[in-house]
Amino acid sequence: MNLENVKTLYSRPLLDLVFEAAGVHREHHAHDEMQMCTLLSIKTGGCVEDCKYCSQSIHNNAELEKETLLKTDEVLEQAQAAKDAGSTRFCMGAAWRDVKDGRGFDRVLDMVKGVSDMGMEACCTLGMLTEDQAAKLKEAGLTAYNHNLDTSEEFYDKIITTRTYQDRLHTIENVAKAGISLCCGGILGMGESEEDRIGLLHTLANLDPQPESVPINMLVPVEGTPLESVEALDIFEWIRCIAVARILMPKAMVRLSAGRLTISREAQALAFMAGANAIFTGEKLLTTPNPESDEDYNLLEVLGLKPRPPYKEEKQQAA
Ligand code: SAM
Ligand code: DTB
Ligand code: SF4
Question: How many CA atoms lie within 13 A of 40 on its CB side?
């Protein structure tokens, strides 16, 4: 769909959009299922990129406990706990600009293999990747790689100056070449214009192949970052973006990522109606808090939704 058409779609009355998105959602997905995912920061802080929203950048002054790369056993223990708590996808995030070959990467490959062998979908977000590194992750059993475009190409350099939109697109290409599913979305509420949100949605929808998963992050304004006091985005703009994402990318999982802690249950319910069908559960995202699992499971129950079963069958351990 070209940019003009996305603009026209985006400008429709909100409830018409939600209504259409709900139809698209029901046509392509089990509308009563929610994918429950868990995030773990496997390497925290000290990142050389200057992303203005991020608690982990060395260019910002957020208060943060830095951590070197976790041990494989620790990560697999957490993955097992997430599985026991009902998660079917485990996403490991590292505060790296890019992946360096060597012992650290080899350890991440072991983690991926371990999570995959547990029968969970394994996802990673490690910064920029080469084609060869993507192939190795695929071989280790990686289901999906998260690499966000974050915002429109036009607004990008107001948020990050240490890498370009093209750098991002290049890694996305490497992920696709390796046959790994792409998880790619953005952040709303960074002070961008409506045109920037439209631009982001247009670029995401025109990726070939389209992302299998589209994380919609609402900015978590972290103290000590340049975006700490940016004005909050109207919640109906967030709903509008979710509905447009669902209509433009019918088969994708539309994933409510950062920001749910301050979003009301009612607004989340409307987002689910508009086609959002995945959430991160667990008390922490990477470095910021997330709603308690109990609250999330309670919300699902009230709304008549159920956790989506894993699409991966548990692998039989060799005797
Ligand atoms: N370093 C890797 C990278 O940037 O690709 C992976 C980790 S990074 C923390 C993953 C994503 O989290 C970012 O692309 C961004 O979209 C999101 N994110 C980070 N801080 C955020 C915040 N304060 N509010 C909302 N989303 C945030
Ligand atoms: C994504 O788009 N959102 C998740 C996941 N991908 C890795 C990360 C959200 C991080 C929110 C800020 C934090 O907790 O540090
Ligand atoms: Fe580093 Fe990722 Fe944070 Fe940017 S978003 S500073 S690349 S950890």
Answer: 25
Q: Which residue's CA lies nearest to atom 8 of ligand 3?
A: 95
Is residue 115 within 8 A of residue 79, CB to CB? The reply is: yes
Q: Could you tell which of 261, 286, 287 is best to mutate to test the pocket of ligand 1, judged by most ligand atoms within 8 Å of the CB?
A: 286
Phi-psi region of 250 (alpha: psi -120 to 50; beta: other; left: phi over 0): alpha
Matching residue, tokens 């979003």:
263
| Other beta carbons within 10 Å of 297 | 18
> For residue 203, how many other CB atoms are within 10 A of its CB?
20
SS3 215: strand
- Distance, CA of 170 to CA of 173 (rounded, Å): 5
Interval between CA 50 and ligand 3 midpoint (Å)? 7
Q: What is the pLDDT of residues 212-266, one digit of tens each?
A: 999 999 999 999 999 999 999 999 999 999 999 999 999 999 999 999 999 999 9
Whole-model pTM above 0.85? yes
Give the integer Cα–Cα distance in Å for 310 and 308.
6
What the chain holds in terms of domains, given with CATH numbers, is 3-307 (3.20.20.70)
263, two tokens:
């979003």
Over residues 27-66, the pLDDT tens digits come to: 999 999 999 889 999 999 999 999 999 999 999 999 999 9
Q: How far is the CA of 44 from the centre of ligand 3 (A)?
A: 10
- Give the residue numbers annotated as catalytic, written as ranges: 47, 51, 54, 91, 123, 183, 255
What are residue 49's phi and psi, to 5 degrees?
A: -75, 160
Is the minimum distance from the CB of 185 to ligand 2 under 6 angstroms? yes
